[in-house]
Specification:
With 477 residues, the protein is α/β, with parallel strands linked by helices. It is 40% helix and 15% strand. Helix 14 packs antiparallel against helix 15. The strands form five sheets. Strands 2-1-3-11-4 form a five-stranded mixed β-sheet, with helices on both faces. It has a five-stranded mixed β-sheet with strand order 8-7-9-6-10, with helices on both faces. Strands 5-14 form a two-stranded antiparallel ribbon. It has two domains: 227 residues, D-Maltodextrin-Binding Protein, domain 2 (3-Layer(aba) Sandwich), CATH 3.40.190.10; 140 residues, D-Maltodextrin-Binding Protein, domain 2, CATH 3.40.190.10.
Length: 477
């Protein structure tokens, strides 16, 4: 979305007005002397080093904090003139942040980590802000759903019992194999949350989703299900064409399959890992160093936007749906977006269930960039061979601290508290950056971010210890 001249004037005028307010209040305080009292904190604007910014995003509902920060003038409140621009795909988005064509972007949580360790493009990317929890789903074609149903447990109401595990998909894949047909599934990017969530779900059901190696980056070594990249908006049409038999993607593209009658979402990522971290806002480390006040200002605006999205028990979600449905943002039918953004999720057509936390933007400290979230993604990169060599626990911790920046986040949060715009108890001030061990995974495996190698050893499928990929074989102890 490109801002016009009126928007520019609006932003400049707002900055001018705030500056005038600051000067007027300061002059008044000086005139009144010791009886003046404190000048309102809101009059103190950060002296941003760069006020004209361009941010990128992919057309998914979880870009919402960016849209809301723009539409509700939270960026302007911080003296920032922002342009939001949709990107063709995740690779283009990352490349444009690295080259400086974009100042920052809505990113897959794995992108800053992968870039920083040099998997794919090499660049030091950081995140001061986590954009949301949950928000993804796994959808299969009608044909696959019909083949899965005989293997599902059905409730007294005649509906499938959730969560649906990949155990029910295993005989379907065997049937495809017996017919000499590959079982193809789509995910959005090799280091996407979707790739790791889909792999996690498949492996929990005894299905090998395949390995990467330094010489084979297809991710399909030893795979029972063949995973490949499909851009999010193209998922439904690719499924309908029969090119893939299922996919993992964010909204609204699972619900789109329901509305089009071409597929059935079988599980949400909330059911795979309750309140899992999803997207982040990424900037280069160079940007953060060169423009520290600008980085704080944009983080403040995004925190306010996330809060607006969740406040008063999601009271603003209907308005958010209308905003996101616009062509400059997600551009999907409001009815489709509302199906998940307003606390429900529709699986098989007509099987709509309450999932109040399908999209979380602020609750549960959702915006805090936890080191342990970063470590989880790194463990999955190692599990599937994207990190080819074994690493000790200290490496995981050090890498997480290079990329996830709770120090910047908390500094921005403290300013908002002092300005009276957020509440003190909405932030984990005493956190060391690690969540307590988490247990609510579909396979009941406990994750402790302080012990990544022990975590990897707990999985029957996946690299662990000294194991590496040699050709098409897993070797080592």
């Amino acid at each position: 979305m490109t801002a016009n001249k009126d928007d520019t004037w609006k932003c400049v005028s707002r900055r001018g007005a705030l500056a005038l307010m600051t000067g007027t209040l300061a002059a008044g305080a000086a005139a009144l002397g010791p009886f003046a009292g404190a000048t309102p904190a809101r009059a103190e604007m950060l002296d941003v080093e760069k006020d004209e910014l361009k941010f990128g995003f992919i057309k998914l509902t979880d870009m919402a904090p960016l849209a809301i920060a723009y539409e509700k003038h939270f960026f302007e409140d911080e003296g920032l003139y922002v342009t939001l621009e949709p990107q063709a795909n995740w690779k283009v988005l990352l490349d444009r942040v690295i080259t400086g064509e974009l100042d920052g972007a809505h990113m897959l949580a794995g992108q800053p980590l992968a870039a920083t360790i040099g998997f794919g493009t090499k660049a030091h990317i950081i995140t001061p802000f986590s954009m949301d929890l949950n928000g993804n789903g796994i959808t299969v074609s009608n044909e696959v759903w019909a083949m899965m149903k005989p293997h599902l447990q059905m409730g007294a109401d005649g509906r499938p019992v959730h969560p649906i595990k990949a155990d029910a998909l295993k005989p379907v894949i065997k049937s495809f194999k017996d017919q000499g047909k590959p079982f193809n599934m789509g995910m959005v990017f090799p280091v996407s949350t979707h790739n790791y969530e889909l792999r996690y779900w498949l492996a929990a059901g005894g299905i090998n989703p395949g390995y990467y190696s330094t010489t084979d980056i297809s991710g399909q070594i030893q795979a029972d299900a063949l995973l490949s990249v499909t851009p999010p908006p193209q998922m439904p049409s690719t499924l309908e064409a029969g090119t893939i038999s299922g996919y993992c993607v964010g909204e609204p593209w699972n619900q789109q399959a329901v509305f089009k009658g071409i597929g059935v979402p079988v599980i949400t990522d909330y059911e795979i890992w309750k309140n899992n971290p999803e997207k982040v806002f990424g900037i280069t480390a160079e940007f953060a160093e060169k423009y520290p006040n600008t980085t704080l200002a944009l983080t403040k605006a995004l925190i306010r936007a996330a809060r607006w999205l969740d406040e008063n028990d999601n009271a603003n979600r209907a308005e958010a749906v209308e905003i996101l449905s616009r062509s400059e943002y997600v551009g999907a039918d409001a009815e489709v977006i509302a199906n998940s953004m307003t606390g429900t999720f529709e699986y098989e057509k007509g099987d709509k269930r309450d999932v109040p936390d399908f999209n979380v933007f602020y609750r549960y400290y959702a915006t805090y960039p936890y080191y342990s979230d970063a470590v989880w993604y790194l463990t999955q990169m190692r599990r599937w061979g994207q990190i080819a060599q074994p690493r000790d626990d200290a490496w995981y911790a050090d890498t997480a601290a290079k990329v996830y920046r709770p120090d910047i986040y908390l500094k921005a949060a403290k300013m908002l508290v002092e300005e009276g715009l957020v509440k003190d108890d909405e932030f984990p001030w005493e956190s060391d950056g690690y969540r307590a061990p988490q247990t609510e995974f579909i396979d009941n495996v406990t994750y402790d971010g302080r012990k990544p190698n022990d975590y990897l050893k707990s999985f029957p499928i996946g690299l662990k210890g000294e194991q590496t990929i040699d050709g098409t074989d897993v070797v080592g102890g």
